[in-house]
TrEMBL record:
Chain segments carrying region Disordered: 1-22
SUPFAM superfamilies, A to Z: L domain-like
Domain LRRCT: 306-354
Organism lineage string: Eukaryota, Metazoa, Chordata, Craniata, Vertebrata
SMART domains linked: LRR_BAC (SM00364), LRR_TYP (SM00369), LRRCT (SM00082)
Species per Swiss-Prot/TrEMBL record: Equus przewalskii
Official protein name in the record: Leucine-rich alpha-2-glycoprotein isoform X1
Gene3D superfamilies in the record: Ribonuclease Inhibitor
Alphabetic keyword roster: Leucine-rich repeat, Repeat, Signal
Cleaved signal peptide residues: 1-42
Length: 354
């Protein structure tokens, strides 16, 4: 490493300063890999101490039970993982004295509340992972000093509602994961101040509808996860602001209606999943902008496990399926529920017989 060796050790309370750390661009997976390599090279793990990795860029610390979480972090700490402790609240002043922190992983605890001041000492934070806690709300102003944050993971908490201003301050945010919560509704302006958002994951919530204009704000959303909710209809204006959307996941909802212009303007869509919904038919013209050879749906589409009624109302879909059958997933599971003459046949079989 540029003439200086990285070193690995366990946390010592006496060590309040350290000379190195992980390259800030290394992922958490790489960090754990480095820990494993260091262990394999003969560094004996101390189960009562946090693991510390040092290199020329800063210090990275990983704490899991039964280790004792340090009361004071090295000033050059860039990566901190405090996971599986079942904390209901964080140790007071945990982040003080670590202004260079770039990644904070707090997954698999039992955090119920966060202080609105939690992130104030770490304005350069880029990644915040709060997976599998018990958060039911986010305090107002939590992200007001988090202009550098690009990844926010709040999956598998107990969030029931979010304020319209809940994401204010996150101008650099690119990845937002709110999956596995208890969200029933979302405010129209939630995404108004996250122009750089690329990935939005709202899967496995209890959403029955999304407000008009909800996706206005992000300038170039690429991936949208809405699977595992209770959506009943796909409105024509929902996706309109996101012409560059590439991946759209709508499986495992209760969709029975899709507006004729729902997909119009999606010029780069590569993947569409509408499986396991309540679709019996779709409006004429819905597919007009999709499936053009060499232009979109390069990674395929899935219409399986819907109760399709294979009558004249599906003529437009039949023609489209024949033209795009090589991109179709689970052809054998995409079958007619009616009328009786076609019940049990695959849509593609019926389409090709017309």
């Amino acid at each position: 490493m540029g003439g200086k060796e990285a070193t690995m050790s366990s946390w010592s309370r006496e060590r309040n300063q350290s000379p190195g750390g992980l390259n800030p661009h290394l992922s958490r997976t790489m960090f754990l890999l480095l820990l494993s390599v260091a262990s394999a090279q003969g560094v004996p793990p101390d189960p009562t101490a946090c693991l510390v990795f040092q290199s020329v860029n800063g210090t990275s610390i990983a704490c899991k039970p039964p280790a004792e979480v340090p009361r004071r972090l090295p000033a050059d700490t860039i990566h901190l993982a405090v996971e599986f402790f079942n904390f209901t609240r964080l140790p007071a002043g945990l982040l003080r004295g670590a202004p260079r922190l770039q990644e904070l992983h707090l997954s698999s605890n039992r955090l119920h509340n966060l202080s609105a001041e939690l992130l104030q000492p770490v304005p350069g934070l880029k990644v915040l992972d709060l997976t599998r806690n018990a958060l039911s709300r986010l305090p107002p102003g939590l992200f007001r000093a988090s202009a550098a944050l690009h990844t926010l993971v709040l999956k598998e908490n107990q969030l029931r509602a979010l304020d319209a201003s809940g994401l204010h301050g996150l101008t650099a945010l690119r990845h937002l994961d709110l999956s596995g919560n208890q969200l029933r509704t979302l405010p129209a302006g939630l995404l108004a101040n996250v122009p750089n958002l690329r990935v939005l994951d709202l899967s496995d919530n209890q959403l029955e509808a999304l407000p008009s204009g909800f996706l206005r704000g992000p300038l170039c959303l690429e991936r949208l996860h809405l699977e595992g909710n209770r959506l009943r209809a796909l409105a024509e204006d929902l996706l309109a602001p996101q012409a560059d959307l590439r991946y759209l996941f709508l499986s495992d909802n209760k969709l029975a209606k899709v507006a004729p212009d729902a997909f119009r303007g999606l010029r780069r869509l590569d993947m569409l999943d509408l499986s396991n919904n309540s679709l019996t038919s779709v409006p004429k013209g819905l597919w007009a902008s999709l499936g053009r050879p060499t232009q979109n749906l390069q990674y395929g589409f899935d219409l399986s496990r819907n109760p399709w009624v294979c009558d004249g109302h599906l003529h437009d879909l039949f023609r489209w399926l024949v033209d795009n059958k090589e991109k179709m997933f689970f052809q054998n599971d995409t079958r007619c529920a009616g009328p009786e003459a076609f019940k049990g046949q695959t849509l593609l079989e019926v389409a090709e017989s017309r």
